[in-house]
């Protein structure tokens, strides 16, 4: 028996609305679509979580099943002076900051990131707009980074702060420790055997394969382990969650 997933709900809502969208930011601007999209969400959310095994693996695919074109989602280029300067040097001076409820705060260069044990996976990206693409992602497991930093027993969530700005505010997202320690949750620095380009989130992006695309934070600059989401933005756990009522848990 197949379950009704959030992806199916979104696809049906998008079809009935008949809207053509070019980016997740445009979706947020359409109030009618947003209301249709989330009208049944609270009703089925508890049922979905109860029926979903969050430790299960997302499907992985063969190389010949990879999409010929992998679209970008969200921001295409942060275009801030700081990011532009980093990109001009191919991120030679970029550093990932890992802090918060950890015993060993980290400052990691791309060489440090690439020196960690790596995982490669061919998975499907499912965007909230309704499109999908299959690509090959590679990078260290997020759990490896968290273990290196020494995660505190008080930590409950992992927050990602990014280089792209929305109305002057850095993009941010969060996941709980179940997803943070999932074996397919990685910090990806290459896509389809090439370094990430700017459109896909260079130099580093989150891949949390059991959730929709807006949870896959791009241009990651900082990772914080926190006990609560109350002090993050408006307290709902992410930029889109705070501004247009996207679900914090976007499991598929």
Automatic annotation (TrEMBL):
Domain of life: Bacteria
Domain Oxidoreductase molybdopterin-binding: 90-225
InterPro entries: OxRdtase_Mopterin-bd_dom, OxRdtase_Mopterin-bd_sf
SUPFAM superfamilies: Oxidoreductase molybdopterin-binding domain
PANTHER family in the record: BLL0505 PROTEIN (PTHR43032:SF2), PROTEIN-METHIONINE-SULFOXIDE REDUCTASE (PTHR43032)
The protein's name: Molybdopterin-dependent oxidoreductase
The species this protein was found in: Sphingomonas qilianensis
């Amino acid at each position: 028996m197949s379950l009704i997933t959030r992806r199916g709900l979104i696809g049906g809502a998008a079809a009935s609305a008949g809207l053509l969208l070019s980016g997740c930011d445009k979706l947020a601007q359409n109030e009618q679509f947003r209301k249709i999209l989330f009208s049944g969400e609270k009703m089925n959310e508890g049922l979905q979580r109860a029926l979903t095994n969050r430790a299960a693996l997302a499907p992985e695919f063969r190389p010949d099943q990879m999409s010929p074109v992998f679209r970008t989602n969200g921001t295409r280029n942060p275009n801030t002076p700081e990011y532009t300067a980093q990109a001009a040097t191919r991120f030679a001076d970029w550093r990932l900051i890992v802090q918060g409820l950890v015993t060993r705060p980290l400052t990691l260069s791309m060489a440090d990131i690439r020196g960690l044990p790596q995982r490669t996976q061919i998975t499907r990206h499912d965007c909230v707009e309704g499109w999908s693409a299959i690509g090959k992602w590679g990078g260290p497991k997020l759990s490896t980074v968290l273990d290196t930093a020494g995660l505190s027993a008080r930590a409950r969530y992992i927050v990602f702060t990014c280089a792209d700005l929305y109305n002057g505010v850095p993009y941010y997202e969060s996941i709980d420790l179940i997803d943070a320690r999932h074996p397919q949750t990685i910090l990806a620095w290459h896509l389809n055997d090439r370094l990430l380009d700017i459109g896909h989130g260079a130099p580093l992006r989150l891949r949390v394969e059991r959730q929709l695309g807006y949870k896959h934070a791009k241009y990651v600059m900082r990772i914080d382990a926190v006990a609560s989401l109350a002090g993050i933005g408006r307290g709902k756990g992410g930029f889109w969650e705070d501004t247009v009522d996207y679900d914090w848990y976007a499991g598929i």
